[in-house]
Amino acid sequence: MMDLPDTEEELAARPELVATGQTLDLIKAIKKFFAPTDHDVERVVEGGGRILRSPQSHLYLDRPYAAGFAPPEQAEAAERLGFANYRPGGVEHAASWDPAAHAIPDSCVAGVEATVFAEQFKGFDDVTVLLLPRLASVAEAAWCGRVPDWAEYRERLARHGRVWERLGLNYFASTEVPWVA
């Protein structure tokens, strides 16, 4: 559940949560609110339903970028964008989503949803910075049905920057990827 802390010590180690006024009582209330849904996937599959894959751990694309991956010209955007309750991550994190992780039979999968919420957007560039290149990584895993080999995938991903630039799309030029000029 959102990788939220359980103790005051764990909360103190998460300055991004403390800075937004999160308290341990509030975090406990959030966890309690979402607890009844812990086994929904199993109940739906056992009942013959279909699942729309959208795990918060990887497919909520309004996760802040980890500061260590921000090129200097995008440091401000990396710090400003993203929902503070999500632990910051990089492009490799998004690409590490494993569609087979929960062993849901293909016949029970309705599709894949990558989510982004707009609370902090100042404009379309903010949307594209959060989505690109993460959305391409989600699409890669969803299409292939497995986690891509990062070393090989990041080389292919590096060429996408030129396409996005030609289309006038602002993207996060993570230092994890050797972008092609």
Characterization of the model:
The chain has 181 residues and is mainly α. The chain folds into two domains: 1-38, no CATH class; 49-166, no CATH class. Helix content is 42%, strand content 4%. The chain has helices spanning 8-12, 15-18, 24-34, 40-46, 56-59, 75-80, 91-95, 124-131, 134-144, 150-157, 160-166, and strands at 51-53, 109-112. A two-stranded parallel ribbon has the order 1-2. The longest helix is centred in the first third of the chain and has 11 residues, at 24-34. The chain is globular, with a radius of gyration of 17 Å. The model has no long low-confidence stretch (mean pLDDT 89).
Short description:
With 181 residues, this protein is mainly alpha-helical. The chain has helices spanning 8-12, 15-18, 24-34, 40-46, 56-59, 75-80, 91-95, 124-131, 134-144, 150-157, 160-166; strands at 51-53, 109-112.
Kindly list the characteristics that best describe this protein.
single chain, mainly alpha
Query: Gyration radius, to the nearest Å?
Result: 17 Å
The dominant shape is globular
Q: Major beta sheet, specifics?
A: 2 strands, parallel
Mean pLDDT: 89
Number of structural domains: 2
Which class of secondary structure composition applies to the elements?
Answer: mainly alpha
* Helical percentage: 40-55%
Q: Report the β-strand fraction as a percent range.
A: under 5%
Within the largest sheet, what's the order of strands? 1-2
Order of SSEs, N→C? HHHHEHHHEHHHH
| Total beta strands | 2
